Every structure is written in structure tokens, then in C-alpha cells.
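Run log, item B.
One chain of 447 residues. Sequence copied directly from the ordering sheet:
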Amino acid sequence: MLLLYKLSIKTSYFGYYIQLILPKMKKFYFVFLLFLAQCALAQKTYIQCGKLIDGIANTVQNQVTIIVEGNIITGIQQGYAKGGAGDKVIDLQGKTVMPGLIDCHVHLEHQGSKTSRIDEFTMTDADVAYQAAIYAKRTLMAGFTTVRDLGGSGVNISLRKAIAHGLVDGPRMITAGRAISSSGGHMDGSVGFRDDVFNHKFGPDDGVADGRDELVKAVRLQIKRGSDVIKIASTGGVLDLSENGSGANFTIDEIKAVVETAKDYGLKVACHAHGAEGIRRAILGGVASIEHGTFMNDEDMELAKKYGTYYVPTIIAGKSVADSAQIKGFFPPVIARKAMEVGPQIQQTFAKAYKAGVKIAFGTDAGVYAHGKNYMEFQYMVEAGMPPMEAIKAATTSAADLLGISQKTGSISKGKFADIIAVDGNPLDDIKTMKNVSFVMKEGKVY
């Protein structure tokens, strides 16, 4: 009893002192943490730019300082500012600085090779994911801080989440999940195989849909799984086993069903299309962009201007498949034939569309060619007659407009994400310098 009494006294004294001291300790720690937070917020990064292409002006600015706080651009000053004690200075005085680039058409899950067809049957989702993480970082280090991934197995959605959570390094992703086509269309993986090879019929769950009702269901399934853009194919393609990739695969009414359903959820629709009729129907159906557009004719171009539809040309993809088609055994014969027909045409169509005044957004179809070489698209665009500054804008302000993210990125502007890159040399003098990316910052973090 005596022991219990002494223990209760000690406990009560201990409890008394805890009640007395704890509120003061809480107040101390609160003040201390507030001090640390203020110190962190007070620190700024001053990026001294020898030349600045801001994505808005048509001229280069010289000797400019970009001020970054956290992940946001908070100021742009003429001259080389250094800030105060504790602020960070990044010296890019010998470089050309510009907004982080945007590629509106990539496929981060895969990269074309001689084994691509068999890989679809041997690689697991885990295999694809590890590979995709490598491609994502390679893309970021090439200066592309944002991409629109237009279709894969669904691993692309998981990759987007992993990048957003900081688990892997890569560009900000807008993701289509699985793309959607008609039966026998570009996304129908059973094309070219015997009917009994697959143990089920491809349907909306696989991105294959016919008629208004199935297409509505296919769109809703992709949204349910986390897609934030919808991608359809209104014609066949080069890299499927169909005999002809240029024929129209959807009616205008079917495309409208896709666009209306996506719009209900606040999503845009991108449309893979090679043939003129499939392009015409897609524009009339209300899609936001035409991807590839190989055989776009004068009527299509006038419609694109009338409806404000963007054209994403992917010239490098066309050139890449045409080159690969000349390597014996790289493609099955039917694909090799189509690659030789389509590949050389895309750059010519781009040149005509640009001169006609069609809105252009930068996109490459990365994955058809080796990831990290996205910069080559700039060279092909300039070769076709687009001035270097406009080519850069196609990958910054125009691309951001197409993706609906102009309030967040696409230019060096106060209040936008600190997505900033630098190249060695002046791309306005030599567009090939776009491959010489020597500085990459995404949302204030230097990679």
C-alpha cells in the first residue's frame, strides 16, 4: 500500500509538470516550425539566362533573370539578379533558356524493334513498367517536361501516378490509357491472326468498339480506369497487320458519341487518322486534334481551320518507319509496304498544312522511334518551312493550348510552373542545337 501511495504521488507530480510544461513546449515547437517554414519560403532561385525564349514573344531576350520560389515562377527581371543571402543562383549566362518542352504524342510503354510483335505476347505488365520508367526519364532529360501519352496497355496510367508522386523521374503526363478503334481497326490486336488464336472476342474492355453504345461504354471504361484524355483511331494504321491503313473506320455519328461522352467528363479527344475521309469525319465529329494526318487534303485543311482542330504531324515517326522498313526482317511485309507508302508523305503534308494556316502542335509518336530523340522533330519541321521560333512555340504555347494546360505551363510567365530548360547554342540560328539540352528543371526541381 505504501509503495502504491508513493507511486501515485510521483505519478501525480509527473502529471502535474507535464500539464504545466507541455503547452509551452507545443508553443515553442509551433514557433520553431513556423520559423523553418518561413525560411524555406523565403529562399528563392535566381536563374540567370544569357538568352531567353519565353514561348510568347517572337524575339529572343538577352540577359534576363527568372525568379523561382518553390515550384512557381514568381518574377522575370532584366539583367542578372542575384537575390539575397540564402538565395540560390543558377548561372545559364552562356545558354539559351526556354520553357520546358511538350510532346503531344508519345507512347512511353514501348519502343519499336524487330521483336516488337513477339514482345506483346512475352512481356508482362511489370516488364513494361520497368522499361517505361527508363523511357520516361530519358524523355525528361531531353527537355520534355510534359507529354501526352496516347495509348498503351494501361501501365501508362500507373506511370503517370508514379511520376506525380515522385517515385520515378519523368515528365508530367496526360494519359489516354487504352486507345479505341473499331473492330478490325488500329487497336484491334486480333487483326492478322487466326480467329482461334485469342480466347475471347475483343470488345470495349480492350479498346475495340462498334456503334454508338459500345463507343460510349469504351470511353467510360477508360475514364473509370484513370485516363485524362481519350484517343481514338478513325482509320487504320501503319504498324497494325491490316492491308490498308487509310480507309475510314468510324461514322461521323460514332465519333460524335465519343466526343460528347468525353466532354461530359471534361476530357478532350485525340484522333489517329491517315486517310482523308477518316480525317474529315473526325474533324466534323469534334475531335481536338488529328494525329499523323498523312493524306490530309485541301478540304480537310479548310475544315481544320474552321473548327480550330489542331494537327499533330509526327514527322519523325514517318521517317523512322520508312527507314526501318528497309531493314530486312524488321517489319512483317504488310507493315513494311505501308511504312514505305506513309513515311515519306507526312513531312510533305505538314509543309502544306502549315502554309495553309492549320494550327500545329508538336508531337512525335515517340516509341515508334527511340525515346529521347524527340528533338529531331524540330529539325524536320524547320526543313519543311516552319521558322525555328514557330517550331519551338508549337512545343510550348501551342502544345499547352491543345492539352488545356496553358494556365500551368507552356511559357516562362509569372505564376506558372517552373518548367525551364536550357540548350547550348542558339536554336534560332541552328535548330539542331535543340538536342543539346544541358539544363532541365520541372516544377522547380533541377534534374
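Observations after the first pass:
- Residues 1-18, 30-39 have pLDDT under 50 and may be disordered.
- The longest helix spans residues 2-42.
Flagged for discussion on Thursday.
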